[in-house]
Specification:
single chain; 127 residues; alpha/beta; 4-stranded parallel sheet; 20% strand
Length: 127
């Protein structure tokens, strides 16, 4: 089992924000050795290369388990893209990694986040 993974997900038009997050994270946390997994709906090869210059990334194209036809029928969900469900892939990733940390891409990291990657006895931490 691998040690740790940072996970993000978003639509292709938000790849710039994911890159900014990666820049801020690794400027402040060079000591954290982690995989980066990005779920997406079509990030271009050139944008992937830019992000991989910041830190090696695994890109996984996300296919929602729900069809748009189903989602369009639910008023409260129609404001979101099917990508909103990709964060639940973190649960599957726990089969591969000891620690999985989801980050929204609209964040800027300004300090040390080592504590997030320290294993806990109960196996789960909410912060």
């Amino acid at each position: 089992m691998k040690k740790a993974a940072i996970v993000m997900g978003g639509t292709a038009n938000m790849s710039f924000a994911m890159a900014v997050f990666l820049l801020s994270f690794f400027q402040e946390n060079l000591q954290i050795n982690t995989d980066v997994i990005i779920f997406h709906d079509g990030i271009s090869e050139s944008e992937k290369k830019v992000m991989e210059q910041i830190h090696p990334c695994y890109f996984r194209e996300y296919m929602s388990p729900f069809s748009m036809e189903v989602l369009d029928r639910i008023d409260s969900i129609c404001r979101f893209t099917p990508m909103v469900f990709c964060k639940y892939e973190c649960l599957r990733l726990l089969n591969e990694y000891e620690t999985v940390v989801w980050f929204d891409y609209d964040m800027i990291v300004t300090g040390d986040l080592t504590e997030l990657f320290t294993p806990v006895s109960g196996g789960a931490r909410l912060m």
